[in-house]
Amino acid sequence: MKKVYIVIVAGLILSGAFTFGPALHAQVVLKTDSITMGQYYANEIYYSMKNGEVSSYARNSWDIAFRTTIRSSSILTNDGYSVILWSYPKADTAGWASVDTSGLYTWTPMYNDPGDWENGAFSRNATGHPDYGWGRYNDQTHDVVGDSIFIIKLRNGSFRKLEIIRKNSVNNIYYFRFAKLDGTGQQDLSLNCNTYLAREFVGYSIETNEVVEYQPNKTDWDILFTKYMSIQHNGQPYAVTGVLNRDGVKSKTFYPVSLDYVDFTRGTWDSTRSAIGWEWKYIDTNYVYHIKDSTVYFVKSSNGEVVKLVFSKFAGSSTGLIVFKTGKVPGLGIPVNQNSGEISVYPNPATDLVHVTFTRTSVEPSILELTDISGRLVEKRLVNTDSGMVLLNVSGLGSGIYIIKLSSPEGSVIRKIMISR
Fold first, then answer.
1. Which of the following CATH numbers is that of domain 2-24+334-419: 2.60.300.12, 2.60.40.3080, 3.60.60.10, 2.30.40.10?
2. Which of 20, 37, 95, 140 is the most buried (most CB within 10 A)?
3. Which helix or strand (DSSP H or E) is residue 357 part of?
């Protein structure tokens, strides 16, 4: 029932039967905040757009991580801390006892998908159901059964051979094994993900052979400040420091805009893992970091709240300090019904000219105001409603939502207009 209500209201807003209330005009009040990742970005910071920093955890604590949800086969590598994974090209799981790593560095390394939490490094060779990269789905047992051997370079630079034997999907248990390349030190393990369902992922340290709970509860954070592998403009993977969105959290990026920009309604929400990413900063020829100018982000958490985000400082690897400003965007609230007999505007959306027609006249002059979504005045004029209509030239304005307000001795009326290029 709730979903139906939302759809109906959205439709009325777009049709012009309703106009937004005063919250649409409110400026976003920004507060300055910061996080410190430490020297050489030693820690990753989990951050809530509502409550600020949630937790800090050392990045060098785990090698691989399993997604905890039952309907997932995603397994990450700690690629931001130099962990590298290769799929063994010389044999399937039957070749476990005779692994030969000659030519290892000619094999293609696999990293986590920068855009998708579900596409971890172990899944990068997936071809689609029933092939999930590290294994294949069995439609009888509903398990994903491993069919690949992997070679992994750990955080400390040592190597292991590794196999994900099976995921018991019904019981949400992974079975896996690893050993040194010569076969010694083999460990056959199981990990019950039901124990960690409150978290998105649970880590495992192959180096110390222990589970690592490095993430806070999934409902407690929205974005993650960390180091991760990204694909550069030349197509090559490269370790970057930036921001990743939790699954279900969406973002929008606006460039070039003034830093007081608030019209987050334009465009579509980006739900990818690295929607904010790392390119909000750059380094000059003197190796000094700068913040990319004229860039504003909006973050929409899974509860629907929208928060504006503007970066202001990046200190680099000496301290890992990042300074930024955030502010909750005032909710649009319940639309306010306006008497459609006062004024009408067309066309809507508009590109060049807007016709404002008056169906109720006043002997006294009225004030016609055009403002942008932030409440900033674009045009103001005295009008005689006896004329029946006035034209507004909007050809010089950028795309977005604008507000037309007519004030007379009898009161005020508001209309929303969309300008589209």
1. 2.60.40.3080
2. 37
3. strand 353-358
